[in-house]
Design brief:
Elements lengths: L1 H8 L4 E7 H9 L2 H4 L4 E8 L1 H4 L2 H12 L4 E4 L13 H6 L4 E3 L3 H10 L5 E7 L4 H13 L5 E8 L1 H10 L7 E5 H7 L5 H7 L3 E4 L3 H16 L5 E3 L11 H10 E8 L3 E10 L8 H4 L15 H5 L23 H4 L4 H8 L9
Helix pairs in contact: 1-12, 2-17, 7-8, 8-13
The protein binds iron/sulfur cluster.
Iron/sulfur cluster binds next to helix 15 and helix 16.
Amino acid sequence: MLVEAIRRVTQRDWTIMEICGGQTHAIMRFGLDQLLPPEVKLVHGPGCPVCVTPVGLIDQAVVLAMEHRVILCSFGDMMRVPGTQIDLNTARAYNADVRMVVSPLDSVKIASENPDREVVFFAVGFETTAPANAMAILAAQRQKLTNFTVLCAHVMVPPAIEAILSTPDCTIDGFLAAGHVCAVMGTDEYQPLVERFRVPIVVTGFEPVDILEGILMCVTQLESAHADLEIQYRRAVRSEGNPVAKAVLAEVFQIEDRQWRGMGQIVGSGLEIRPAFSAWDAKCKFSLGRPILQDVGPCIAGDILLGKRKPHQCGEFGKRCTPQTPLGAPMVSSEGACSAYYRYRPLFEGNKT
Ligand code: SF4
C-alpha cells in the first residue's frame, strides 16, 4: 500500500538521503530501494558511527593499547577498523590488552576490578550512545575511580546534515533523519536546517514500513513544493526529546569541532568531555594532543558517506575489500553502507559471495 502510494504521488526525479546506517541496512536487506519508482533515488548518509571515526583516533587508541599498555575497551565493530598502520585486533595479536565490551559500564567494572591497571573506554557514536558513555563517566566519578578514562569520539547528526547541504555540488532533495537520535535529542535542531536550506526532513524509524512511510512523507512534500520537518517515528520521538538524557549529556560533554572520516572538519559536530571531568578524559590523562588526521589508502569512504558514490562504485568493493579483509570502516561496521551492499546485494560486480 505504501509502495503504491509512493508510486502514485511521484511525478519527478528526487534524491533522498537516509542518514542512519541502520536504515541503510534495512533498505538493502528488504530491497526497499527496488520497490520504489525509478524517479526516487535513495543515497546513504554518514550515520554509521564507526565509519565516521577518523583514522587519527583509531591510531590514538592503538597507541594507548600498545605504548601506554592500558586495558583498551570498545565495542566489537571498532576492533577491525583500519588505522594508519594496524587495527585494534592486530594490536591484540601483538599482546596488547584490548577487550570487547557491550556496554561502557563494563569498562567501569573492569577498572574497579583492576585497580593497578589503567582502563580506557574508546567511546564512539552519535547522540544515541553518548548518554550511556556520560553515565559511565559519572559512575567512575561516584566510585572515585582514578584508573578509568574515556577516549571520546562522539559526533552529532545536525551539523553533518548542514555540512552535506553546504557542499556546492549537493544533490540531496530530502532527508530521512534517524529516529533514535531524535528520541534522545528531540527535533528542535532540525527546524533551522529545514528553513535555511528549504529541504524536507522526515524523522523516520527503522522497520521497513517506517522507512517506506518516511519516503512517502518526504516525496509528498517535494511534489507539493513544501519543506517541513515531520515526524514519522511518532511512537518514540517527541519534539523535546528525552530531557533526562539531554541533561546528562550537557553535564558531562561540551560541543566542539570534530573531524569526520572522509568529510573533514565539521564545526560544532563533536562532543568532548568537559574540563570538570578531565580526570576521566584519556586525551588529558595521556597527553594525546590532537590526533594526526589523515585518510589513507584507496578507500573512498568520504564519497560513500556524502552520498556521492555507492559502495559498488568503489574499485575495491568485493575485490580487495570484503568484510573479512576490510580496507575501510564502511565495510567493517554492522551499520556501514559497504557491508550492507556486500551482504544483501551479492550480484553486484566484484562481490563474489
Ligand atoms: S568498498 Fe571498502 S575501500 Fe571501498 S569505500 Fe567501501 S570500505 Fe572503502
